[in-house]
Amino acid sequence: MNLSHVSFRSYFTSLLSVVALLFIMSSCGSDKGKVEEVNKLYGSSSKAWVTDKQTDAAGDKVKQDAAAQDQEISFASNGTYSGTQSGKYVFDQAAKTIVMTPEGSTTSSTFNIETLTDDKLTLVNPNSPDSKLMLKTK
Length: 138
Hints:
Elements: H1 5-27, H2 39-42, E1 46-55, H3 66-70, E2 72-76, E3 80-82, E4 87-92, E5 97-102, E6 109-116, E7 120-125, E8 128-137
Antiparallel strand pairs: 1-2, 1-8, 2-3, 3-4, 4-5, 5-6, 6-7, 7-8
């Protein structure tokens, strides 16, 4: 079999291009499953989040009206949150959960955290894994 020098170089260049493309594509993947440290939740002292998207128990996108889009929740470094409700929260990075207890209540709500980065927060209802609230920084 006679391989010319030019065809081998062309083959090697193509192979290298494909490997580089695959590497770039894999490094640009989604943040799903990435839960960073608690300070991503509140920034330097407090951070406001607004609804980006929401899905229901069937995983279908919930249409956001103007009022829902304007609602925000702020998390503070002192373990409190405020918005339509105020209260205290406990963040557990290892368990990827946040427990929120409204002011004056003895009942808390626990949410699984699917994503927490500087600008994305996805909360999942543990009783309905397809029911998600995706938030973005304001």
